[in-house]
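Structure ticket #2291
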Amino acid sequence: MKFGPIAIADAQGCVLAHSIKLPDGTLKKGLLLGEPELQRLAAAGIDHITGARLEADDVPEDAAALQVARALGGAEVEIGNAGTGRVNLYARSAGLMVLDVARIHATNAVDEGLTVATLQPDSPVEQGQMLATVKIIPYAVPQSAVAQVLQSLRGEAPEDVGRRALRVAAWRNLPVGLVMTRTPQTAESMLNKMREAVAGRLAPLGASLVAEHIVPHDDEAIAQALQDLTRHAAAPRLLLISGIAATVDRRDVVPLSIVRSGGRVLHAGMPVDPGNLLVLGELPATTTPHPVIGIPTCARSPKLNGFDFVLRRLAAGEPVTAADIMAMGVGGLLTEIDTRPMPRETRRRG
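Resolution: structure written out below.
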């Protein structure tokens, strides 16, 4: 693409770079100049404009943006119309926005004139919410750059084949079972607070609490409750354990109860604060294993914490592995929860 000052006599077929006010109206930027527009410019005494002339290997901005958007958007993603070099992508349904960050970075590294901006990975989204925007900065980009971007979006790993870099995993109406533990000194209000906090998290995700057990804070009692929940008539697919005491080791009560019930602990702890003391495990089942989450005690607060990161993925039918949890540290420093026993101190400069 050639860009710069162009004499009116040579400007037919060029794209007007900047809007120009004329006595009989305005010629807007991005306009493809034809003979009528050139006559109006000449009549206004204008002999040069700033514009762009596309070359044979250029892809016009709208066409380029649409190609990239179609290669980017996968399941449950609606592609908007192209205009001024921009195409927006929207969620067809409520769910979790799943993003391949590496492929987005690779796309934005190809050409400065071709850009993709998205929401944060694993963002919960509503139906119709904007997920991403593709914007072509100049009025055209080279075909070679578009081809390279499309290749970047396709990915190089075998698991990328057929899977787009951006998709929405819809909420799955997940039935959930909850085990809460108590001691003789535990106030009913504390149990109610956790129950309400859990229910408040589940509702926006299309999930629901279908069964509950309250047992002593003892690994054998919790293990029995977990086994009972797997046989419950409502068949919860996700099991939650809210221990009255925080889990501080893999051999502590909550992780030990998962093992005693016939399951295994996948990961203990996470690089998200609040939420460090989460436990992730699973129990065997006839089809796929039942995920089990040992909820950190900070989840009694409705504020965002590490439990939400894991819960959202499971509610959308997305697997959560130990590697997934270990990758949550960047962006994992969240807003403090004031009710924690040892809240962070704010360092003030003297």
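Closing remark: The chain has three domains: 2-53, 58-170, 175-326.
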